[in-house]
Prior knowledge:
2 strands
Amino acid sequence: MNNELTINVRVSELIIKVEENKKRHVQLYNEAIIGYRKNIIEAFSKKLNDAKDGKDVDHHISLSRPVSREKEYDCLLGMLNMTLDKTMVLTTQQFMQYVNDQWSWKGSFINSCNPHGVKLSDIESSYLD
Length: 129
């Protein structure tokens, strides 16, 4: 017997919430990409200047690129927009992902953004919990 809590939600309201979450995700990703490009240019410039100065230069640059999960939002929104149902049942896990934006990959996404100038204060506390 499955005792997991489920709720019935309006698909139209769920679409609005997922679109809001996607917008915030894309905004954070775009900010991180700008910072990533700046960091890459700075790292390459420093190595180029060191090489021009005759210094021994390691050619490896250790910067991780932020990873967008926008396609996961797009897939969910596509499914929600195509359903003939007006309501749907969500499990606790689905509610946490779709409404609270608490995906299993969220921690790694935030970690991939932090080194590139996206401050934790820029990310709402609801996105971090």
